[in-house]
């Protein structure tokens, strides 16, 4: 298994617990999204398995929901690009994401994101961008369930069509859309047809929406021919990791090959841990 959307936990004990859960579920790798302090301090025993990813932008310098400082830049929402380049080159950061601009009401085609897409394309850094649903009532300041509220979170800022200009400007960008931008699956079908390098993850859907709705979205993507560009993600701790794997394994419309692709092989190819099946541009959508 390969979890492309795993959030960092806050203590060494929790890291140990996550590694134990990964071992028990045969999860070989996880994209480990966390504050710089978390991902730069991972123990050597996690090397190659927890792949460090930096989230940004961060409102007031603080991570959505959790409220911890994202990177050493005070209250700045965006990391300094020279600092970020250096951290990529020294291997501390291997993935940009979760790019949670939607939490700030910032659309994918906003000029403030352009330097980061350009840097990712130049250095061939994978990018995961959050589009679609977020935590319920996250924009409600009275919501007691999150340390850091996001009053500017807007669905309009997560419209997949707003990603099209980015993909046109950066044809070599290695990007995946988190949550498959649910519920805008029809728009994702268009983007995946037009941009054969584009991938999606299906994280959070295994527990944030009703199972029939999740299976409808997943089946729509698969039947359109994109089973080789869908990647599994837990978007949570051990319980959500197990739940997400079970949801894929129990999906009655997936073949065994499709289950393996979604749970492991697609991510191995996307993150360059395995060779691609083909580099040819398909002549038809889903081809």
Description:
By secondary structure, this protein is an alpha/beta fold. It is 33% helix and 13% strand. It is built from ten helices and eight strands. The chain has helices at residues 12-24, 36-39, 81-89, 114-123, 164-169, 185-194, 205-208, 211-223, 238-249, 256-270, and strands at 2-7, 29-33, 50-56, 95-99, 127-130, 175-178, 199-201, 230-231. Helix 1 links the parallel strand 1 (2-7) and strand 2 (29-33). The radius of gyration is 18 Å and the shape is globular.
Task: Give a short synopsis of this structure.
With 287 residues, this protein is an alpha/beta fold. The chain has ten helices and eight strands.
Mean residue pLDDT: 94
Question: Numbering strands along the chain, what is their spatial order in the largest sheet?
Answer: 1-2-3-4-5-6-7-8
* Helicity level: 25-40%
The tally of beta strands, per DSSP, is: 8
Shape descriptor: globular
Distance between the termini: 25 Å
Q: What percentage of the residues does DSSP assign to strands (E)?
A: 5-15%
Summing up helix and strand content along with how strands pair, one would put the structural category as alpha/beta
Unreliable spans are: none
Radius of gyration: 18 Å
Order of helices and strands: EHEHEHEHEHEHEHHEHH
């Amino acid at each position: 298994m390969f979890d492309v959307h795993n959030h960092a936990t806050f203590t060494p004990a929790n890291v140990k617990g996550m590694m134990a859960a990964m071992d028990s579920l045969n999860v070989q790798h996880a994209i480990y999204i966390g504050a710089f302090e978390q991902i730069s301090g991972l123990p050597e025993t996690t090397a190659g398995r927890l792949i460090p990813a930096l989230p940004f932008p961060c409102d007031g310098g603080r991570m959505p929901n959790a409220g911890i400082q994202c990177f050493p830049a005070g209250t700045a929402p965006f990391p300094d690009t020279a600092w970020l380049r250096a951290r990529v080159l020294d291997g501390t950061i291997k993935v940009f994401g979760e790019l949670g601009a939607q939490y700030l009401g910032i659309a994918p085609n906003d000029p403030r994101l352009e330097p980061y897409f350009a840097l990712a394309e130049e250095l061939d850094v994978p990018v995961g961008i959050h589009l679609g649903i977020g935590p319920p009532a996250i924009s409600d300041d009275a919501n007691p369930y999150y340390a850091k509220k996001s009053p500017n979170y807007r669905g309009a800022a997560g419209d997949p069509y707003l990603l099209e200009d980015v993909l046109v400007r950066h044809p070599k960008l290695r990007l995946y859309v988190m949550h498959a931008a649910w519920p805008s699956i029809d728009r994702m079908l268009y983007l995946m047809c037009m941009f054969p390098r584009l991938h999606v993850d299906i994280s959070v859907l295994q527990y944030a929406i009703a199972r029939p709705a999740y299976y409808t979205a997943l089946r729509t993507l698969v039947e359109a021919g994109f089973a080789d560009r869908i990647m599994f993600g837990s978007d949570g701790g051990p319980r959500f990791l197990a739940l997400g794997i079970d949801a894929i394994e129990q999906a009655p419309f997936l073949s065994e090959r499709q289950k393996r692709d979604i749970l492991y092989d697609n991510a191995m190819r996307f993150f360059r841990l395995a060779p691609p099946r083909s580099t040819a541009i398909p002549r038809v959508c889903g081809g």
